[in-house]
Design a protein that fits this description.
By secondary structure, the chain is an alpha+beta fold. It has a single domain, classed as Glutaredoxin (3-Layer(aba) Sandwich), CATH 3.40.30.10. Helices cover about 40% and strands about 15% of the residues. It has a 4-stranded mixed sheet with strand order 2-1-3-4, with helices on one face. A hairpin with a 2-residue loop joins strand 3 and strand 4 (about 100). Helix 2 crosses helix 5. The radius of gyration is 14 Å and the shape is globular. It starts with a strand and ends with a helix.
């Protein structure tokens, strides 16, 4: 079974969940708003994907926290991802030994079908 991390009302998460439902792929949703996220999980994702792909620099949380103006190191960015999961690009999908970030129809079709 695959694990989807994100928030229920995110458009990209909704698209991913619809894809999985349409293709009868079992998944478990971990909602950032109702379930805590361990920092070790974030660090594990970063062994599979680049920090720049995981950190959502276009979201309102990033802008609201004014992180662009802070000139953060990579370690600082990781610390922020750990304490503020809304900074994570969504969805994050764990599948076997793979971590996918974001929703891409063609990528999902190639990976899951």
């Amino acid at each position: 079974m695959l694990h989807v991390y994100g928030i229920k009302n995110c458009d990209r998460v909704k698209k991913a969940l619809k894809f999985f439902k349409t293709h009868r792929i079992e998944y478990q949703l971990h909602d950032f708003k109702s379930e805590s996220l361990q920092c070790q999980k974030v660090k594990n994702w970063l062994t599979h994907v680049e920090l720049s792909k995981l950190l959502n620099t276009r979201g309102t949380t990033y802008r609201h926290l004014k992180l662009k103006e802070r000139d953060l190191s990579d370690d600082d960015k990781i610390a922020w991802l750990c304490k503020e999961p809304m900074l994570i690009k969504r969805p994050v999908v764990e599948y076997r030994d793979t971590v996918l970030v974001g929703f891409d129809q063609s990528l999902y079709e190639g990976e899951f079908l």
